[in-house]
């Protein structure tokens, strides 16, 4: 086994250190063929060593680019550590990657090897793979003995026949750390293409180790913390979360969308890493389930959440824990605090009752959940307040693949609610206006940053690299935001997603879409209207909730789905209900109302209209529904 006093300069050093420090602790829990398995840190070390030895015998070397096509599973992380121990560069992707996109990445990245999850997945891409001449070998994680004479396909069962580990093997494996530096590239991640063709993000050990060293403190991470993992392991947010957990000796339970709710109750995690869309789904399911079971209980639940949210808000006003963008006169501050103090006293009895009843909801998350991290997109304010009201501590985080991923986060040390917290440690962050000047607090501009987490550049893409960085080395995120007077960050939109009407008004679609999806009959919404006179929305309805809403307003019978989607009276009633939310009294401008809406008959799918972290691919949606959009806003 390795020396306990290893330096922590690279990700491989981190693995070696944890395998000694936490050797007997459980690193992973996973299921395979309905059986449950537990893996210790010692076993993780051994498995990575054996696989690295096998890869080495098949000519995987330092600098080799290896496509890793798999969803989250124990075999994924073992493969990842085996590759980085060799100094190879992983090019990870999820199993739902379309064949054309996969072909583009394999060719653009100059991949020499492919690791693929299953034989079925291999068969799905078989014809395309036959046409690639650069692939020296294909390895199948889950499969029987597949290798035949004169072909280059091997299952892990083929290459791992000899699982013995000699002292020389261990010494050689550990010694490989001396060949890896912090500036070496360890992975090449292609963005999911929310705005166009995927770009290859190069990340080195310095980038990822910035996150591994700094983020545990922000979430007060301890070795007895248990994570339930649901996000794709190849995505940098989930990947970084796993590395961080492993660096502190935590246990990670691999879950799935199907088993997530049950796994929360069974494994009682203290930490989860999620994306906003998962919280949107939980919000809708909890409210809709209560409504179906007992409308009276559903109303009481909403009232309890409302009481808790109001109490939390007044408490934050009293203790100066809400964002402030401009100086407030002392008398005005005093009056606000006095009013808040009075309201707190009045709400104490109701709040105690609400908190007691809402503990039942916390039990659905296992009862031990002390913190949930939401990344991969900004959490809508209504969800932030709802999660907070039911008593779950939420870390609303901001990051990008290009920053491996941390930029800012509302950590345990930040009490300013409704923000993303301050930039992470040793990060220079500034807000830049259209004229290139740095903006003051409260002013909206592009977020730019510089720090050890920032990637060295895009792979083989000089044009994008020229656009991505300023002359003084700051990375241009393309996101719009503003800073509070005390330095916390608030995201206001994305510059490339801003809709500009024909009249010149600029509109952030995410804010309006967030408001629309609060309605129970709206599963999803996409705002459209670029260069048009007004706005429209493509809406994915919850058909059962939509029928309930319509039947409550009109004398409609049991409408067929097709009739419901096309009925002008229904469309107009829904539009009126939406525009009621988009009223100036709720902070919206008159031109942010909708002129027209259109119901879609299909949900957005991951890998098609959605990225793997469930963000909307606007360019794909707008292209797919171009004819509908044209008619909607003619």
Describe the structure.
The protein is an alpha/beta fold and 634 residues long. Helix content is 40%, strand content 20%. The protein contains 22 helices and 25 strands. An 8-stranded mixed beta sheet has the order 2-1-11-10-12-13-14-15, sandwiched between helices. The chain has a 5-stranded parallel beta sheet with strand order 4-3-5-6-7. α2 crosses α3, α9 (205-218) packs across α10 and α13 (295-318) packs across α15. The termini are far apart.
Summarize the structure.
With 634 residues, the protein is of the alpha/beta class.
What Rg do the Cα atoms give?
26 Å
Between the first and last Cα atoms, what is the distance in angstroms? 70 Å
Number of helices: 22
Q: How confident overall, as mean pLDDT?
A: 89
SS strand fraction: 15-25%
What is the overall silhouette?
A: globular
Helix share, percent = 25-40%
Compute the number of strand runs: 25
Structural class: alpha/beta
The low-confidence parts are 1-7
Major beta-sheet overview: 8 strands, mixed
* Widest sheet: strand ordering: 2-1-11-10-12-13-14-15
